[in-house]
Write a structure and sequence with these properties.
With 1407 residues, this protein is of the alpha/beta class. The protein has seven domains: 164 residues, P-loop containing nucleotide triphosphate hydrolases (Rossmann fold, 3-Layer(aba) Sandwich), CATH 3.40.50.300; 131 residues, no CATH class; 92 residues; 298 residues, Orthogonal Bundle (Ribonuclease iii, N-terminal Endonuclease Domain, Chain A); 105 residues, paz domain, CATH 2.170.260; 179 residues, Ribonuclease iii, N-terminal Endonuclease Domain, Chain A (Orthogonal Bundle), CATH 1.10.1520.10; 67 residues, Double Stranded RNA Binding Domain. 43% of the residues lie in helices and 16% in strands. The protein has 48 helices and 41 strands. The N terminus is likely disordered. Keywords: ATP-binding, Endonuclease, Helicase, Hydrolase, Magnesium, Metal-binding, Nuclease, Nucleotide-binding, Nucleus, Repeat, RNA-binding, RNA-mediated gene silencing. InterPro entries: DEAD/DEAH_box_helicase_dom (IPR011545), Dicer_dimerisation (IPR005034), Helicase_ATP-bd (IPR014001), Helicase_C-like (IPR001650), PAZ_dom (IPR003100), RNase_III_dom (IPR000999).
């Protein structure tokens, strides 16, 4: 079959787009690869990647977005993804995406891949990613225009390269689908084989590769063509004579190791572990044993010792380098057993190593070889390296076959090289071994250090044979001979510098290996000749039984799973099921019964097959059937990925939706109005008396104030009352409706002029803005209400003090001859000369004046019996006359020095009197009054008593509260319009729910938020539990997060325009809108709330996403506590959270004989509840590790439900039992009661741990430790956070799962749950016994005292987590490191210890 050349339905080829510096053979290869699928077979370093880049440049016009097509560049090693990706970026203008497993691509769904495909034009990735993408139908071959396959010689057997070609390319090729990608393979050796060195045998292998790749090989005619451009390393054989370690030593150590192995295997058989666990641990012990025997035989006693160190992590430095040891599927207990075996072998080797601080393995290498500490092979390596020790800039790679060899040789070089040179060494090993692993990040860092010369020698496995581009590498040593031609060529190609050497270490007795390596040297020319001789032949059709292989395909997406891929898909599905540290869910195949058992959290329990076919095929068939059934019930999506993958991707996408934090701030329409233009009619107004009552004694009384509005306030707001927090005490504010009044336009104009003047002066404390305010239009469309002084009670029913209002009209000319009956002090004149002329003293002493010489304003409260010639005592003790003082200080010569001075009181400071716990004192009033010469005073208002100014200084705070209440009223009405049928919620609760802690008022939303959060969690959980009966706990949790996460609640809130109602800033009187003042920068814009109610926007401000979510939760809590669950559910339904509490039968399709598994009678007595369905009790106590088939489910779903109901009923209990509880205390009580440690203690206290069904040895051991330590806890530790050990989460889980089981069995009666579970949790925490979490307490202390709390330092070793907490306080460093099984416990203990130290040393001043 000829190579496919059709592109996009046509026959025209892309035009060649070469790079100017391309070599002749690269241009030739490019022209051929454009015309047909091609495998470029060229030496390492010859620039194959550049050919691929030029091919991409030629196809770029088909790839550039918005084109739906892409190019895919496949590389066999993760370390090559960034290297090749960056190369493509450098030489093209194409958008390149780079992908590897560590990015979490295994958990991406179709939507995520779609975004990346739409964004990038070239995708560089490992082949496993593309294969999975094709199988899941995230990718289609038809969308790939160019498919570049680096190191394509791997395309054989079950390698992903081969699977891509067989499962997808050749299937479509046979179907005569024309839209197939152009293929470019690249390799330095098209053959990956151990044997066969004839041209015919080579051609057979090349032909197989060409057929599979549907591509023809292109190569240069001879090596000499390439030699013009690239250097070739010089092969050098290093032959060494094998010398065995002393026989007696080897025999003795081998016997010891075998004895230790048998000893540990025997102890395993005597343990109570299940058979599968014993088998797994035994296999790992055997692996370690085999590796140690290998090291002893091949490397010597000292390196075998280093291997034992690595396996046991006995040496912390070595353990760090080895990046720990993942022991396959072993749990913590299994790891410990294997490590103990390794530690015993370490001690066995140690007895044969010379002791003493002066001894080192590098002291006498030859002597160490004679005693068996090193083998002759290791000595040969040392000698070979040291021959180059005088080369300063050495870059050497030592290739070994085994990972353990790489690790221990690196240990040897680290100790030996410093004695001879300044070289640094590292090792790089692959991650396929079950014994040791290295992170990809660590490997990349080592490669970069090697390039920069920071590392001189790398001991590496075959992972570095391919693709590593280090131009300065000048020495390669094959410590172990290459197993294949390809390995030989690839490793030789790593030496890229001129005059570099390729050393081949060979045992002198091993003639076969020597002969094979010599043939490998000639293999390059033989392969070239074979390729060139057959270059004109077309590719043969692929002969395969692939079409006969069973598969399952989803029609809608064409996602496919085959027999061979079904096993990995089932394992992947199980890996995404819920797990814990005691159990990792995995499928189990029973060969005897031909049954595939799936974990209990899987909705499908087992697959049973019958037949006499091959055992492997039978297992694959069962897995394929499981995949089919899982898809049919929705556990696998239409892309054949676990449902939780899509759910998590959707949840993440929902959480990442853009949110604009610039939100409106609403203003109540009741306070906005419009005066009809050119109208002389009287307008109707409603009057409210704002009664002010002081709880303290002060020399100035308060006056009542009249609020005059066009709109009548509702009954709740119109009769509201509250307290203001004044420095001297509290001021009670009481609203009272007093009737209707009709005002003419001129009266309204007068009133507005009065209130603007008075309030502007109070807020600004000067007259700078007043003229601008009064010159504007005062009868416009903005805030339309009046604030006027009330008459004294003896003057009523007349409510408005019009005399005071007219004070704003004062004019010297008008009032110069008018005066009141006034008392004159002895010797005082009837009038005094002011800045504007003579004024009667009665008008001056009840006036507001300004003093232009300093810009201040004062309330004149009296006439003094002194004049400008009277003496004044200054702060510095000097005495002078007022006349002299004003001349010296202000440059003013007083003209009327015999006239009496007046007493001026500085204007009152307007503050936020709504603020909680105000401690600040009024500023700027260092003197309560000053003496002023009348001739310096200009009267602004008169007559007006000082009490009016004092009373009006509270007006901004009073009106801000009124504005807030009216906004709450608007929100309440909106809720009533859309769902709430009864007027159940008071406005005060709505206001509390929309007021954040940032407002610093006496109430805020935290209590309601806590209550609402618990109800939302419960409502969503029970709805999901009933709706998705086949979904496991992991999916339910993700669905719940997606439904009620902060991001989701914020979106619901924004869709209902809730952000505009939120109060999230402390009131600033300076920003308060003075009614009628239109001079400011604010303007009110109108908005409709769902086309029914009008609201105004006065400004925008930043509101965080979480703040909106908190308000939604608080509103749920407000409706819940006033209107019950029905009101809360109606509100949630209006938001878009569809939840109902209708009781539906919970169908269960399995029968369990509970009495055979549990002591049902004892458990029901303990729970004070009799189950109707005993299978629920069994399910609630079954851990995932308990694999008996008669119990089809574990407790995870019930735990999910029980967690939510316990949170809700306990929060509800605290909320109603302690109604005066502060929000902070309610939160602390909830946190202390609703947590796993609290539940776990209760489980142990009542003996529930004895009834848990599980099969985990580690869980059994942890529970036993917990029970033992439980007796040491004091009774006080039942409250709060006293425990310093980690409780098994399982113990807390069963309390929750039992609560869930009772809830389901009682037809969702949460009161039954509370009556049953509460006795287990007694004594419940109280306000007196609750303690804050140490982490919270320490953080709050540091914030309050301005201490520096450093970022916690985290480390993990041997399954334990260590957390270090540091606090810098008063010049001292407080530091503590705590170690526990989990991060939370370690953090809690570390914070607690730091707090204790600080309380002693800092807070109490003790040394």
């Amino acid at each position: 079959m000829e190579s496919v050349t059709v592109l996009g339905g046509g026959s025209q080829h892309p035009s060649v787009d070469p790079l100017s510096f391309a070599r002749s053979y690269q241009l030739e290869a490019l022209e051929i690869s454009i015309k047909q699928n091609t495998i470029v077979f060229l030496e390492t370093g010859s620039g194959k990647t550049l050919i691929a880049i030029m091919l991409l440049r030629s196809y770029a016009y088909l790839l550039r977005k918005p084109s739906p097509f892409i190019a895919v560049f496949l590389v066999p090693q993760v370390v090559l993804v960034s290297q090749q990706g960056e190369a493509v970026k450098m030489h093209t203008d194409l958008n390149v995406g780079m992908y590897c497993g560590e990015m979490g691509v295994d958990y991406w769904d179709a939507a995520i891949w779609k975004k990346h495909i739409e964004k990038h034009e070239v995708l560089v990735m490992t082949p496993a990613i593309l294969l999975a993408g094709l199988r899941h139908s995230f990718f289609k071959l038809s969308m790939i225009k160019v498919l570049i396959i680096d190191e394509c010689h791997h395309a054989r057997r079950k390698h992903p390269y081969a699977c891509i070609m067989k499962e997808f390319y050749h299937r479509q090729l046979r179907s005569e689908i024309s839209e197939l990608p152009r293929i470019l393979g690249m390799t330095a050796s098209p053959i990956k084989t151990k044997s066969g060195v004839s041209e015919f045998s080579f051609w057979e292998k090349i032909k197989e590769l060409e057929t599979l790749m549907n591509s023809k090989v292109y190569t240069c005619a001879s090596e000499s063509v390439l030699a013009q451009f690239i250097p070739f390393s010089t092969p050098k054989f290093k032959v060494y004579r094998h010398k065995e370690i002393p026989c007696s030593l080897y025999a003795h150590l081998a016997i010891q190791l075998q004895s230790l192995k048998e000893k540990h295997e025997l102890s395993l058989k005597k343990s109570d572990l299940v058979e599968s666990a014993i088998d797994s641990i035994s296999k790992n012990i055997a692996k370690v044993f085999s590796a140690l025997i290998f090291c002893l035989d091949e490397l010597g006693v000292w390196l075998a010792l280093k291997a034992a160190q690595s396996f046991s992590c006995f040496d912390s430095d070595l353990c760090t380098e080895a990046d720990s040891i993942p022991w396959g599927k072993l749990d913590v207990f299994g790891e410990k057993i294997v490590k103990h075996f390794s530690l015993d072998t370490f001690h066995a080797f140690s007895t044969y190593i010379p002791s003493g601080s002066d001894w080192s393995i590098g002291n006498d290498v030859k002597a160490n070889m004679d005693t068996g500490l090193l083998t002759s092979k290791v000595v040969c390596l040392i000698d070979s390296l040291l021959e180059y020790r005088y080369i300063k800039d050495i870059r050497c790679i030592v290739f070994v076959e085994r990972i353990v060899t790489a690790i221990v040789l690196h240990s040897l070089l680290e100790e030996l090289l410093p004695k001879y040179c300044s070289w640094n060494s590292k090792y790089i090993a692959g991650s396929n071994s079950q014994l040791q692993s290295q992170t990809r990040k660590n490997q990349n860092e080592i490669v970069q250090e090697f390039r920069k010369g920071m590392v001189n020698v790398i001991v590496a496995t075959s992972i570095l044979e391919e693709g590593l581009d280090v131009q300065s590498c000048n020495l390669v040593i094959r410590f172990d001979p290459s197993a294949t031609v390809c390995s030989f060529i690839q490793s030789r190609g790593r030496a890229r510098m001129k005059h570099s050497d390729y050393i081949l270490m060979v045992k002198s007795e091993d003639c076969a290996t020597l002969s094979r390596l010599e043939k490998y040297l000639a293999s390059g020319d033989i392969m070239r000749k074979a390729s060139l001789r057959h270059a004109s032949l077309p590719c043969s059709p692929l002969q395969t039984d692939l079409d006969d292989e069973k598969f399952y395909r989803v029609e809608s997406t064409e996602a496919t799973v085959t027999l061979s891929s079904s096993v990995s898909l089932i394992f992947f599905y199980c890996s995404r099921l819920p797990s814990d540290c005691y159990f990792k869910p995995a499928p189990r195949w029973d060969q005897k019964t031909c049954t595939l058992y799936l974990p209990k959290s899987c909705p499908l329990q087992n697959i049973v097959l019958q037949g006499n076919i091959n055992a492997k095929i039978l297992k694959q068939t069962a897995c394929l059937e499981a995949c089919k059934q899982l898809h049919e019930i929705g556990a696998l999506t239409d892309n054949l990925v676990p449902d939780i993958v899509v759910e998590e991707a959707d949840a993440e996408a929902s959480g990442n939706e853009p949110y604009i934090d610039e939100q409106p701030c609403y203003f109540s329409p009741e306070l906005v109005g419009r005066w009809p233009k050119d109208s002389d009619m009287k307008m109707k107004y409603h009057c409210y008396l704002i009664e002010l009552k002081q709880s303290f004694v002060y020399d100035i009384p308060v006056n009542d104030i009249v609020l005059v509005m066009k709109n009548e306030l509702g009954s709740e707001v119109g009769s509201t009352h509250f307290d203001l927090d004044i420095d001297r005490g509290s001021l009670t504010v009481n609203f009272k409706y007093v009737g209707v009044i009709y005002l003419r336009p001129d009266q309204v104009l007068l009133c507005r002029r009065f209130q603007i003047t008075l309030l502007r002066v109070l807020i600004d404390r000067n007259l700078n803005k007043l003229k601008e305010c009064l010159d504007g239009e005062l009868l416009g469309d903005e805030t339309d209400y009046l604030l006027l002084p009330a008459t004294g009670k003896h003057q009523r029913p007349l409510i408005i003090d019009w005399l005071c209002v007219t004070s704003v009209l004062f004019s010297c000319e008008k009032f110069c001859e008018y005066h009141l009956n006034c008392y004159l002090p002895k010797g005082c004149a009837r009038s005094l000369q002011t800045k504007d002329g003579p004024v009667c003293i009665c008008l001056l002493q009840n006036s507001l004046v300004c003093t232009p010489h300093n810009g201040n304003v004062y309330c004149i409260t009296g006439i003094l019996g002194m004049n400008a010639n009277s003496c004044l005592t200054l702060r510095d003790g000097r005495i002078m006359t007022y006349k002299k003082y004003f001349e010296e200080r202000h440059g003013i010569k007083l003209c009327f020095d015999h006239e009496s001075l007046v007493n001026g009181r500085p204007i009152f400071q307007v503050q936020n009197y709504l603020q909680r716990c105000r401690k600040q004192k009024e500023k700027g009033l260092s003197k309560l009054s000053v003496e002023l010469p009348p001739e310096l005073c200009s009267i602004v208002m008169s007559p007006i008593p000082v009490s009016i100014f004092y009373s009006f200084s509270f007006v901004p705070s009073i009106l801000h509260r009124l504005e807030s209440l009216l906004i709450a009223v608007t929100l309440k009405r909106m809720l009533l319009d859309h769902g709430l049928q009864n007027d159940v919620i008071p406005v005060s609760k709505v206001l509390e729910a929309i007021t954040t802690k940032n407002c610093q008022e006496i109430f805020h939303l935290e209590s309601l938020e806590t209550f609402g959060d618990s109800f939302l969690k419960y409502a969503a959980s029970q709805q999901l539990f009933k709706t998705y009966k086949n979904q496991h706990e992991g999916v339910l949790s993700v669905k719940k997060e997606k439904l009620i996460s902060n991001a989701a609640l914020c979106k619901f809130g924004c869709d209902r325009k809730l952000p505009g109602f939120i109060r999230n800033e402390s009131f600033n009187p300076k920003k308060w809108i003075i009614p009628g003042d239109r001079s400011g920068t604010y303007s009110l814009s109108e908005e409709l709330l769902f086309n029914t109610r009008k609201i105004y926007i006065k400004e925008t401000r930043k509101v965080k996403r979480k703040c909106v979510a908190d308000v939604v939760e608080a509103l749920v809590g407000a409706l819940l506590c006033t209107g019950g669950e029905t009101a809360a559910l109606l509100f949630m339904d209006w938001l878009g959270i569809k939840v109902d509490f209708h009781i539906t039968p919970y169908e269960r399709h399995f029968q369990v004989h509970a009495e055979k598994l549990l002591n049902v009678r004892q458990l029901e007595s303990l729970l004070n509840y009799s189950f109707h369905d005993h299978s629920l009790l069994v399910e609630a106590l079954t851990h995932g590790s308990y694999m008996l088939p008669e119990i089809p489910r574990c407790y995870q779903r019930l735990e999910f439900l029980g967690d939510a109901v316990l949170d809700y009923i306990i929060t509800e209990h605290f909320y109603y039992k302690y109604p005066g509880l502060s929000p902070e205390l309610l939160t602390d009580m909830r946190s202390a009661s609703v947590n796993n440690d609290c539940y776990a203690r209760s489980a142990v206290k009542c003996g529930l741990h004895k009834h848990i069904l599980h099969a985990s040895h580690e869980l059994h051991k942890h529970i036993a430790e917990t029970v033992y330590n439980f007796g040491k806890l004091s009774s006080e530790s039942m409250f709060g956070w006293e425990s310093e050990t980690t409780f098994p989460k399982v113990l807390g889980d069963v309390i929750e799962s039992l609560a869930g089981a009772i809830l389901v069995d009682s037809r969702f009666d949460k009161e039954v749950v509370f009556r049953s579970i509460r006795p287990l949790l007694e004594p419940l925490v109280t306000p007196e016994t609750v303690k804050p979490h140490p982490k919270k307490e320490l953080k709050e202390l540091c914030q309050k005292e301005h201490y520096i709390m450093n970022k916690p330092i985290k480390s993990r070793n041997n399954g334990l987590t260590s957390i270090t907490i540091e606090v810098e306080a008063k010049g001292l460093l407080f530091k503590y490191t705590a170690t526990a099984r989990d991060k939370e416990t370690a953090t809690k203990v570390a914070c607690k210890k730091v707090l204790e130290s600080m309380k002693v040393l800092v807070l109490h001043g003790k040394s």
